[in-house]
Amino acid sequence: MPPLIDLVGLKFGRLKVLRRVANKGREPTWECICECGNMHRALGRNLRTGSTKSCGCYNREQPRTHGESGTRLYSAWKGIINRCNGFTEQTKSIYKDKGITVCERWRSFENFQEDMKESFEAHSEIHGESDTTLDRINGEKGYYPENCRWATHKVQARNRKFRNKHPGVALKKGRWKANIGVNGSQIHLGTFETQEDAVEARIKAEEKYWEEC
């Protein structure tokens, strides 16, 4: 066993070592006083490596996160950021290369939350979260408060320009087919009677495969 390093009188972060106390298992343990006045016991190795710097007061003083990371609202925001940054080759060609961007204000989730959470909750109460999607009113423009709303999949599909050039949707032998490219492979989404239904399937697939990136 290596010789004990005496830490009495030394300071580590906000902690000043006062005395050695009973080991925790086989680990040398030290009683310290924090700058805030609290007493705290810490392992010597944690003090020396910097993993323990206070009695816990430092962490409590740090700004709290938004707490929305696992929510549908956060997923919608993350999705537009990823798409417009060209996170995948598919999204790069459809969004970034066409100049579709996220406004500067919405580069911060907190700002997006402030602008869109109330309307998100109102729409979700009626249609459910799974059928609440972020829709650009003018598909030729980017993501900013005046150009965005919450819409169901069907409403968003109607807002798209229904034409053969729509990504992943094509008319073949009198029926509309929808596909999506994921990781270099094409996934067939189905064959539909109407272009609207094919576009709706494509939109749902984009949310499933691309927003999770």
Can you describe this structure?
- This protein has 213 residues and is an alpha+beta fold.
- It has two domains: 11-61, no CATH class; 72-209, no CATH class.
- The protein is 33% helix and 25% strand.
- The protein has seven helices and nine strands; from the N terminus they run E-E-E-E-H-H-H-H-H-E-E-H-E-E-E-H.
- The chain has helices spanning 44-49, 57-61, 72-84, 89-94, 109-127, 153-159, 195-209; strands at 11-12, 15-24, 27-34, 39-43, 133-136, 148-151, 169-172, 175-182, 185-192.
- The strands form three sheets. The chain has a four-stranded antiparallel β-sheet. It has a three-stranded antiparallel β-sheet with strand order 7-8-9, with helices on one face. Strands 5-6 form a two-stranded antiparallel sheet.
- Strand 1 (11-12) and strand 2 (15-24) form a beta hairpin.
- The two termini are 49 Å apart.
| Secondary structural class | alpha+beta
Report the span from N to C terminus.
49 Å
Q: Residue-averaged pLDDT, rounded? A: 84
Give the SSE order as H and E letters.
EEEEHHHHHEEHEEEH
Principal-axes geometry comes out as elongated
Integer count of domains: 2
What is Rg? 27 Å
Count of helical regions: 7
The major β-sheet equals: 4 strands, antiparallel
- Unreliable stretches, pLDDT < 50, 5 or more residues? none
Number of strands: 9
- Which strand-content bin applies to the residues? 15-25%
Helix content: 25-40%
Sequence of strands across the biggest β-sheet: 1-2-3-4
